[in-house]
Design a protein that fits this description.
alpha+beta, six-stranded antiparallel β-sheet, 23% strand, globular
Length: 253
């Protein structure tokens, strides 16, 4: 069995925890908070506080060989992306370690560990909040800062963008589930695809796009705002078609 590690050397016990995950998998006392193909669990690390462990699902043979031999596994990507994001000045939970285990060139098990977040909110449903207007302006400024830094998060969705207000009343944002990211991106169309699922409603996206466009050079504002809203509309059309195809196929059974 081949084991690859990423370890945060500033975090006490990170290497020990990585070794335990490699040998035994999730600890018996882990509290599962999400379970599907991937599992997310919380473990107590004593003095260091609670940690979040993401156990990635075991891939099939073909994907296992791809990730075992040719592509960086998701757990290692998450760790490396977290370090790069934090170096650029963007918040994401502090990475602790990442572990992958491969057998005969085929990825089998993999884990990513970071600090567990408390008292942060998802973006889902913020259109109904009393402070939606200042919040959406802060989100637009945050997206603008990400894009100017060349950061492109492919899963830029309500559940992966967390927020809270600090003691001064300013909004802070935190990115989670970050294994699918690119850095150094300058393609405007690619960056603008972040508007496809950032909020739930078209009215919310229109407000977000307007606030984002206001931060661009005056000559680009109308184009940027239209592209942002069109990105959302096109994604909704795709989702609508998929939903109705599924309903049609279920009706045929």
């Amino acid at each position: 069995m081949r084991v690859l590690l990423r370890v945060n050397t500033d975090f006490p016990g990170a290497r020990t925890l990585a070794g335990q995950l490699a040998a035994d998998g999730l600890p018996a006392g882990a509290r599962i908070i999400y379970s599907s193909r991937n599992k997310v669990a919380v473990i107590d690390d004593g003095a260091e506080g609670p940690l979040c462990v993401k156990a990635f699902g075991v891939p099939g043979i073909i994907k296992g060989i791809i990730y075992g031999l040719f592509r960086k596994p998701k757990a290692l990507k998450a760790f490396d992306n977290a370090e790069q994001l934090r170096a650029l000045g963007f918040d994401t939970p502090e990475p602790v370690c990442a572990v992958t285990l491969s057998e005969c060139g085929c990825l089998r098990r993999s884990y990513y560990v970071c600090r567990y977040l408390e008292n942060w909110c998802e973006l889902r449903g913020i259109e109904n909040l009393a402070d939606f207007t200042p919040l959406v302006r802060a989100l637009a400024a945050y997206m603008n800062r990400l894009h100017r830094a060349g950061v492109f998060m492919k899963d830029f969705t309500q559940g992966n963008i967390l927020f809270r207000r600090d003691d001064s009343g300013a909004y802070r944002f935190m990115l989670v589930d970050i294994n699918r990211m690119e850095f150094g991106v300058t393609d405007t169309k690619k960056l603008m695809s972040n508007f496809g699922a950032a909020l739930d409603t078209r009215d919310g996206i229109v407000a977000l796009a307007h606030a984002y466009a206001a931060l661009q050079p005056e000559s680009e504002r109308d184009t940027v705002e239209a592209l942002a809203v069109d990105t959302f509309d096109r994604r909704q059309a795709v989702l609508w078609r998929r939903r109705h195809i599924k309903e049609f196929l279920r009706g045929k059974k």
